[in-house]
Every structure is written in C-alpha cells, then in structure tokens.
Design a protein that fits this description.
- Strands 1-2-3-4 form a four-stranded antiparallel β-sheet, with helices on one face. Strands 5-6-7 form a three-stranded antiparallel β-sheet, covered by helices on one side.
- The chain is an alpha+beta fold.
- The N terminus is likely disordered.
- β3 and β4 form a beta hairpin.
- It has one domain: Pleckstrin-homology domain (PH domain)/Phosphotyrosine-binding domain (PTB) (PH-domain like, Roll), CATH 2.30.29.30.
- It is 24% helix and 31% strand.
- The longest helix has 19 residues.
Length: 144
C-alpha cells in the first residue's frame, strides 16, 4: 500500500498539486560548491508573492506579486547540477525588478513549476491579462 508521502510525491511529479491550497517555499541562496547555505539571501515563494530578503547588517526586501510574472525559466549550470541546485529566473512586469533570479536553490524545478501554476491562478483570480510591450508609442498615426 502506498504511503501518504508517495502519493504526495506522485502528485508533485504529475503537476496535479492544487494551487488553491496555501503553499510556501522558503529557500536560501547557497554556494555552488557543496551547496552550503552560507549567504544572507532568503527567498520566499507563496501563492501570492515572491519575496527576496538580502543582507545581514543592511537588509533589503524585494516583493513581486505572482500575477505580474510573465515567464519562468530554469537555469542549471554543471556545478549546480553536481550539487543538486538550480537558478529560477522570473521575467515579470514589475517596474523595480523586471527580472528576478532565485539563485542556487534546492528544489529549483519544483519551485519553477509552482510559480508557473500559481502565477496563472493569480492572474485568473485578479482577472488580469498578460500582455507584451511592443513599443507601440513609437508608431505614428500616419503609419496606420
């Protein structure tokens, strides 16, 4: 008989985890060498927001709502692959940080998939539309 852990793992692999449930990932930026968390950067990903806390004495906190995430990319270098790490790149419509990088984290693929599903659900809940900026302000009326 399959245990609860096996069933939960199967759901994650198949992508059938419910996005509606409250879920939170908290990861620390790690050194690529041995994957040790000796940095002062913490990433928190919830159903609504991505938060990056950085620094020890002078701290900086950056938030981005998930409905603003347009695309997510997983980047894995050879060193990251050896130590089971990855970098998740989020391309957003946020003005302060159009690109967010969750650098050298464990469970990178799982977090990337969660962000994709949660971002789509957040857009549906807010009834927003994801569009691209094509610099239409450069077009003159004579060109139409």
């Amino acid at each position: 008989m399959a245990s609860e852990q096996d069933l939960a793992e199967d759901k994650r692999e198949n992508g059938s985890d419910a996005v509606g449930e409250k879920k939170e990932y908290v990861e620390r930026k790690r050194w690529v060498l041995f994957g040790l968390p000796f940095t002062f950067t913490k990433y928190t990903v919830t159903n609504e927001v991505i938060t990056i806390n950085d620094g020890l004495l002078n701290t900086k906190e950056n938030d981005c709502y998930l409905y603003k995430v347009q695309d997510v990319e997983l980047q894995v270098s050879l060193g990251e692959r050896i130590f089971g790490l990855g970098t998740v790149a989020c391309y957003t419509g946020d003005n302060t940080h159009p690109q967010l990088f969750l650098t050298h984290i464990r469970n990178a693929r799982e977090i990337k998939n969660f962000i994709l599903r949660a971002a789509e659900e957040a857009r549906r809940q807010r009834r927003t539309l994801n569009t691209l900026n094509i610099n239409a302000s450069d077009i003159d009326e004579d060109d139409l």
